[in-house]
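User: Here's a structure from my thesis project, written as structure tokens. My advisor, Dr. K., wants to see whether a designed sequence matches the one we expressed. Can you design one independently, without my sequence as a hint?
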């Protein structure tokens, strides 16, 4: 059955970044059959169902390509300490921070993780998100990492969303391995990775930082992951530069995320490797960072820029991609066009799903969002207001709200 979605303005975010001021889309089941100017609608297309969009803007369903949205508990007390002057790194060195969430997550059941995480996912879905990446990384032991990944898959099975999972076992050093970071990396490589690959993980991630893992340790992890045929991505140069981007580039990482302390040479290496740079301005804001990512160098070298929420209980306690888009514009100086591609085509590329999602073209998934806005410049302009009024996932309307 063919459905005609008519009377809309369309930003396709495809390779040609086509825009149709008097646009229409035809879908067949879960896929896009045709997209273009309504006046050019092929005469032979017999559409059985018509949806009137009343002049709204249509974009691809948004892709949030970096979240830690499955976790238990919260860290409001830690935030209070940070606002009073203690740094994120100091709290981490004391055994708080990520390890605080590890304690809460280890104590939670799979059902408990699903229930606590569902409202965060739903907050993203209400903003037009139709694809979301979810990391493990608050287990740091085999069973809890696996439980987090299963919780992520259950969220996917029970919500209108595509989930991409990343194994982030190398997020922090678990207390059982205190003083033995190399042994921990060895355990992930030799024991966990071969077993966890069966859980359908989409990528292997790591936190490369002096409060987490060294460039050499990430290099070792990625060597094993790539040999198992897994994609890799990296949290790098967030609080200092310890050489993570170079490791990510050497392994052809899908993405390199944060990057506040990356250099011009790092940007060049990422460009050559085709790695997407994921900007996480909510973490920059919540940690009151001052060092801006090298946006000009990333642009000059042609590194694709993505923007993500980083939803997590420590550095980005929120579940709003629209807020991240606003912060990317206000704090990092991205343009509205960069931000839009950053949550569509480029974000899909960071998850290696760009051939199906993150853009509107014939043959791709019928995932899109309708916005009650006059101009595309309003994406990333509103701060704490959501103009999304309709979401379609795989060709079906899954959300409608009055705006
Ligand atoms: O992307 N940088 C490391 N990981 C997260 C923070 C996780 C946490 O504080 O719980 C991030 O910002
Ligand atoms: Fe993160």
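Assistant: Designed independently from the structure alone:
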């Amino acid at each position: 059955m063919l459905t005609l979605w008519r009377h809309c303005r369309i930003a396709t975010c495809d390779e040609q970044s086509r825009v149709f001021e008097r646009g229409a889309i035809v879908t067949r089941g879960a896929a896009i059959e045709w997209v273009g100017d309504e006046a050019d609608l092929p005469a032979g297309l017999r559409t059985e169902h018509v949806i009137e969009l009343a002049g709204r803007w249509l974009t691809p369903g948004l892709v949030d390509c970096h979240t830690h949205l499955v976790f238990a508990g919260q860290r409001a007390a830690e935030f209070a300490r940070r606002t009073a002057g203690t740094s994120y790194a100091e709290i981490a060195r004391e055994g708080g921070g990520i390890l605080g969430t590890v304690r809460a997550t280890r104590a939670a059941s799979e059902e408990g993780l699903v229930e606590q995480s569902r409202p965060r996912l739903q907050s993203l879905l209400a903003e037009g998100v139709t694809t979301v990446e979810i990391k493990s990384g608050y287990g740091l032991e085999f069973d809890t990492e696996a439980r987090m990944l299963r919780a992520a898959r259950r969220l996917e099975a029970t919500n209108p969303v595509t989930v991409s999972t990343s194994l982030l076992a190398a997020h922090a050093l678990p207390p059982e391995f205190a003083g033995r970071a190399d042994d921990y990396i060895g355990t992930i490589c030799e024991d966990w990775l071969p077993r966890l690959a069966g859980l359908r993980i989409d990528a292997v991630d790591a936190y490369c930082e002096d409060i987490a893992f060294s460039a050499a340790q990430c290099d070792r992890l990625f060597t094993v992951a790539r040999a198992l045929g897994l994609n890799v991505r990296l949290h790098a140069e967030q609080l200092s530069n310890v050489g993570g981007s170079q490791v990510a580039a050497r392994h052809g990482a899908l993405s390199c995320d944060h990057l506040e302390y990356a250099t011009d040479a790092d940007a060049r290496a990422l460009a050559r490797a085709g790695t997407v740079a994921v900007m996480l301005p909510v973490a920059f804001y919540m940690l009151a960072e001052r060092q801006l990512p090298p946006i000009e160098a990333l642009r000059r070298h042609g590194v694709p820029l993505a923007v993500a929420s980083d939803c997590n209980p420590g550095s980005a306690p929120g579940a709003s991609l629209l807020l991240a888009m606003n912060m990317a514009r206000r704090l990092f100086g991205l343009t509205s066009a960069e931000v839009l591609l950053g949550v569509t085509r480029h974000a899909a590329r960071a998850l290696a799903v760009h051939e199906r999602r993150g853009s509107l073209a014939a043959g791709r998934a019928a995932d899109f969002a309708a916005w009650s806005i006059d101009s595309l410049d309003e994406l990333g302009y509103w701060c704490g207001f959501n103009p999304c009024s309709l979401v379609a996932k795989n060709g079906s309307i899954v959300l409608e709200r009055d705006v």
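When you compare it with your expressed construct, this may help: The chain is about 35% helix and 25% strand.
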